[in-house]
Amino acid sequence: MLKYVERRPRAELAGILECVWFVSGRAVAGVRPPERIVPDGCPELILHRADPFARKVGTRWVVQPRIFLAGTLTRPWLLRAGRRVDTLGLRFRPGTVASVFGVSMHTMADAEVPLSRLVSSRAAAALRGAVARARTRPRAMAAAEAWLVPHAAGTPPRPRVAQPAVEEVLRTRGLRRIDDVARTLGWTRRRLERAFAHDLGIRPKMFARIVRLNAVLAELDHEQRGDVVDLALSAGYFDQSHLLRDFRALAGRRPRESRHADGEMARHFTDPRRLRVLLSGE
Predict the structure, then answer these.
(1) Are 246 and 212 spatial neighbours (Cβ–Cβ below 8 Å)?
(2) CATH number of the domain at 163-280, please?
(3) Cα(5)–Cα(141) distance, rounded to whole angstroms?
């Protein structure tokens, strides 16, 4: 069994991190079913202290780096745990990574980006060492947060160009047309596209699709699985077929399929309680 725990970030990081999480465990006999990671707009900084996960790329399973940023996803990832799992994650809020590290995200969507592309090799080694030396998982989480604080502070602070648009898409659960979002902010469509390319690495329309699907997942608990048609219409889908297409493309499963099918770890990421908080911007 994999044990997953998470906690809210320390106060200085609450504006950029959704949470800090840890997953641990050992392999049982046989091969674990893969973990299916559903896109939610949140990049993550991942540190494997034991055996790294492997990600399915085409028909092959490719072992992940030991420390990397998982950029904004636009499709589900299938991951397979190693024999010994001891993995820490810093889950960033949508659109915040670029300002933290002073980089553009335009080439980082759906990619495993080595931390050395975001910070110096010395800074990356400092994080790896601090987390490795921590004797307990809470101390490892605290060490990762302490490492991030000076990067998050920035001198001078770096602007989050897309933040007003990201907040508007989250507030409206992805229902507003992108041209209307731009008009509300007094922006051109071109300016909105550039802001999303820089801060998220994806197009605003894709982010709206991701948010809209997660809004359905946030309401799709066990008791409501019979009301998929009503949920689809209330979430802004044209019909149930439209919802099914997005589920296949973004979630890799059917709406009525339990989130527990995502995997021992990944089911926590699609927990309706977690998604409601994410969509509310809290």
Answers:
(1) yes
(2) 1.10.10.60
(3) 11
- Name the pairing type of β-strands 54-57 and 60-63: antiparallel
Q: What percent of the chain has pLDDT over 90?
A: 75
pTM over 0.85: yes
> 189-199 and 204-219 are packed helices; what angle lies between their axes, rounded to 10 degrees?
70
Q: Quick one: tokens of 40? A: 């939610």
Residue 269: the pLDDT is 94
Which CATH number among 3.40.50.1000, 2.60.120.10, 3.40.50.450, 3.10.250.10 corresponds to the domain 3-153? 2.60.120.10
Cα distance between the two ends of the chain: 30
Give tens-digit pLDDT for 112-163: 999 999 999 999 999 999 999 999 999 999 999 999 999 988 756 688 999 9
